Structure formats: C-alpha cells, structure tokens
Automatic annotation (TrEMBL):
This is Uncharacterized protein. The chain crosses the membrane at residues 20-44, 56-81, 87-104. Keywords: Membrane, Transmembrane, Transmembrane helix.
Length: 121
C-alpha cells in the first residue's frame, strides 16, 4: 500500500468540496483547543500534576495560530490547493511547532518570566 496525499481519514470528499472548512477550523479549532488545554492545565496545576506536555501543546497552539493559520490562509487564497493538501500542511505545521516547543519549553518559560519581571519594574 502506498502513501496517497489525496486521502485524509475518509474526509477527502468533504475537504475537497469545501476547502474553506480548513481555513475556518485552522483559526477556530486552535482557539477552542487552547481554551480547553488552558482549563486542563489549570486543573492539573491545582492538583499538583506536572503540566510540561500541556504547556508545550499550548505553546504550539499559539505559534500555530500566529503563523500556521496565516500560512493556510495565504495558501488557500493564492495557491488554490485542495482541502486535503491544506489539512496536511496545517497538520505538519502544528506537529513541527509541537516538537519545537517540546524541545524549548524551558526557554519559553524563562523568556516569559524575564519579560514579566521587566513589566513589573
């Protein structure tokens, strides 16, 4: 069986017929997931459970919202790509940011804490 980039978990007909769905969910889906993971992180912090992976997911969602969703919007308007290819591009951008934020989570925390200390002064 070969890899085919024209299939996406059985949703290829819907995605190819209306690729605006990918653009819509690349913005709204990220905001909904960030809100949900923020609530989960709050609950975990209150119970004392480590939230290292959840913080990485939140950082990757923020980076994906800022850069990835704009990329999808530009590719949708200019590129004329199919909905399935847009979904694969968004998924690749999100996973790339997730790996990046897993590797540099401590640097992000230090950056935010240093910035908040400068704001207090």
């Amino acid at each position: 069986m070969e890899l085919n980039f024209n299939t996406f978990f059985g949703l290829e007909k819907m995605l190819n017929d209306t690729p605006i769905i990918i653009v819509f969910w690349s913005f709204l889906g990220v905001i909904i997931m960030a809100f949900a993971f923020s609530i989960i992180a709050y609950i975990f912090r209150k119970t004392g459970i480590s939230t290292y992976v959840i913080h990485s997911i939140l950082w990757s969602l923020v980076l994906t919202l800022i850069v990835g969703s704009v990329t999808i919007l530009i590719l949708f308007v200019i590129g004329g790509l199919s909905g399935v290819k847009l979904a694969y591009i968004w998924l690749t951008v999100f996973l790339g940011y997730f790996v990046f934020s897993l590797l540099y989570n401590n640097s992000f925390k230090k950056l935010v804490s240093d910035y908040s200390q400068k704001l207090k002064k």
